Amino acid sequence: MTPVPVFIYHSVSDDPEPWIAPYTVSPKAFVEQLDRIEASGRTVVPLRSLVAALRGGPPLPDRCAVLTFDDGHEDFYWTVAPLLTERDLPATLYLTTGAIRVPGGRASGSMLPEAPMLNWRQVSTLDALGFELGAHSRTHAQLDTLPARRLADEVKGSRADLEDALGHHVRAFAYPHGYSSAAVRRCVAAAGFGSATAVVNAFSSAQDDPLRIARLMVMADTPAERFQQWADGRGAPVAPFPEHLRTRAWRVYRRVRSSLGRPVAC
């Protein structure tokens, strides 16, 4: 199994809200990126195929890629889904369940700033179209700073929200902000999720952790040359590798701030 680029997107829009703009690519850029993946000879496979391979199942094609999308922005329904359906490409969409709206109404609430988000009817339609839907917590909290009871509610609760709405099991999870810890990963496994994705900005590999799958974040300012490198299998490290000391220090700092009632904004 050669290194696999697992791309993480958020919003695909020409007119994003200011807070999500740095994490947004235009539809034109998104189409160009899909073209680059295709031209590189890669096959876009479902996330579940990568997870199965990581767990000793059927091998993946020699050159493949995975597409994932976080949060649950409404432009996935209106822009991304038609583009992917036209090319018959699979993708996994991770939903912050507290941000999903009742059609014509409001959402139950999340820490995400105001933006056009999906409603539950659109979520059900995307599920029927064959897109894999995963959980991204209830409120988009920094999970590695939470006490055990709140952590369990964010993780188990988001799975329950989706399964109640969709009527089938949900097996994929993504850590908000990419933040996790050993305790968070144990909670995710105990909640019944079969996989979880981080950020890491690295390629996944045959030795990657199914509960901490590495992804490459595509942002508004990601140069075309860098994306081409990723599509070619270059320009980023290969997971897994030990957690950096600065990552641990950053987690401790955020926990202290959270305990003082002054959480670090992300």
Quick recap:
It is found in: Secreted. This protein has a single domain, classed as TIM Barrel.
What features would you describe in this structure?
- The protein has 266 residues and is α/β, with parallel strands linked by helices.
- It has a single domain, classed as TIM Barrel, CATH 3.20.20.
- It has helices spanning 27-39, 47-54, 75-87, 120-128, 148-166, 182-190, 224-232, 245-259; strands spanning 6-9, 11-12, 24-25, 43-44, 64-71, 92-95, 132-135, 172-174, 195-200, 213-217.
- The strands form two sheets. Strands 1, 4, 5, 6, 7, 8, 9 and 10 form an eight-stranded parallel beta sheet that branches. The chain has a two-stranded parallel sheet with strand order 2-3.
- The two termini are 34 Å apart.
**What would you say the CATH architecture is?**
Alpha-Beta Barrel
Give helix and strand order, one letter per element, not per position: EEEHEHEHEHEHEHEEHH
What would the average pLDDT be, to the nearest integer? 94
In angstroms, what is the radius of gyration?
17 Å
Number of strands: 10
State the end-to-end CA separation.
34 Å
- The secondary-structure class comes to alpha/beta
Just give the CATH class: Alpha Beta
Percent of residues in beta strands? Answer: 15-25%
Q: Largest beta sheet, briefly?
A: 8 strands, parallel
Shape: globular
> Could you say what the CATH topology is called?
TIM Barrel
In CATH, what is the homologous superfamily? Glycoside hydrolase/deacetylase
Uncertain stretches: none
Number of separate helices: 8
**Range of helix content:** 25-40%
Taken together, the total number of domains comes to 1
InterPro entries: Glyco_hydro/deAcase_b/a-brl, NODB_dom, Polysacch_Deacetylase
Main location: secreted
Domain NodB homology: 63-266
Subcellular location: Secreted
